[in-house]
Each structure stands twice: as C-alpha cells, then as structure tokens.
Amino acid sequence: MNNVKILIIDGHPVYYQKTVGFLKGLTLKDITTASSGQEGLKKVDMLRPDLIMMSAMLPDFDGVDICREIRAIKDYTPKIIVQIGVFYEEKDIDDLYQSGANKVVLRKEKDFLSLEKAIDELLFSKSGSRQS
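The structure assignment produced for this chain is given below.
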C-alpha cells in the first residue's frame, strides 16, 4: 500500500525533510510538503491526500484552525496526524481532537516510533501489516 498520498505541513524545513526520509523508509513514496498552513490548504484542495501530517504550530495557522478548515471540505475525510511539542496541555490536545485530528503525537526529532505507530493504526490496521 505504498500508493498512499501523504501531505506534510510543517514550517520547520529540517524536520519535514527528516520526516520525508523516514516515510520513504516505510516504502511510502507519494509525499508532498507545504511550509505553511495556507500552502497546505491549497495542496489539500488540489491533491486530496489520504494522510495529512502537520505541526500543531505553523507560521500562519494553529493546528485547531487548519483541522477545522480541512474537515469543512465537503466529501473529503483524510486521516490527520498532528504533531505537538512537549509543553502542550491536555485542553489543547482535546481541542485538536475536537477540531478533527485523528491522532495527536508528541513530536520527537530523532524518534519516529510514535509517528510510525499512528500511521500504522490509521492506514494499515485493516490489513494488519504494511505492504510494499
């Protein structure tokens, strides 16, 4: 199932480049990036990705607002993973879920285990394993 379309929305170029490399290592190849919420929303409208991975804090949007924008698109229900920093409070995490995030994971620069688990649960849980 490496034909999954993925959009990464992140204002931190080093981090999203590492994420792209990590995803390619999982045999996921159809990956597009956006460095702002506005650019991300344009690419969502144009590409209709299956999975959107984004930072909770973007240069021009916060995670709650962009999740709401994406969920407002008619007849489109992508999976959304929001990555947060260590200082997020429980209320902020609840707001992300209520605005449409499927998973909220702690952003770790060198440890992608929680991100891999979220991807597996959202995209591959029906078949039980990732296929290349």
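Interim note for the steering committee: The chain has five helices and five strands. The chain has one domain: 5-124.
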